[in-house]
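Escalated from tier 1: guanosine-5'-triphosphate holo job.
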Amino acid sequence: MIIKSAKFVMSNTDYRKCPPPEQPEYAFIGRSNVGKSSLINTLVNQKGLAKTSSTPGKTQLINHFMINDTWYLVDLPGYGYAKVSKVERAKFEKMIDGYLTNRSNLLCTFVLIDIRHEPQTNDMNFMRMLGEKGIPFCIVFTKADKEKKAAVQKNVDFYSKIMKQYWAELPKMFITSSETKEGKDEILAYISSLNENF
Ligand code: GTP
Ligand code: MG
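Tier 2 regenerated the structure:
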């Protein structure tokens, strides 16, 4: 798919104020600092469309971006950021949960996982929650440029092995890097195929 335009639409704390759910939508979620905003920028060939930072906790709202005037990418706040207060964290969780549960045009949620990390409890719990609620998702491994190819594959294999203990069927997986653009075309092709069936 060729990206002809990518525009910021709006930021919200409440799914009810998001744009009308009339066009297909894809959300990016995962632990703070995993690379959600960077990946969105990579997909649309823009450096600063989604705000990124080396400090975790940058994205704090539900951010809608309209792509090619026909579908949405959504940048969400990260979870699992230890420095956020309990009250603040509960607020984020409620916001994300409300969004994921109620957005009828959400065709796929991309769950981002840093390729260098072994499976973490909060990622596993998050995916289990998606499964229980019947929310379709894929796994996107990020920062593949930070590891050698063989190590990347080894980590993916290990991740798959652990996932198989909980899931009868593994979700679709993408290996990506916002530095090298690895995985970009694959994700866009997948989105394009889902858009066709909306
Ligand atoms: P929050 O909004 O805070 O939850 O973070 P985020 O998941 O949106 O992460 P963000 O895209 O802001 O990136 C976090 C840091 O990781 C930044 O310093 C990025 O430059 C870096 N980063 C993101 N993706 C990659 C990648 O593919 N490779 C490398 N080497 N660095 C990356
Ligand atoms: Mg972000």
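Helices lie at 36-44, 86-102, 121-133, 149-163, 184-196.
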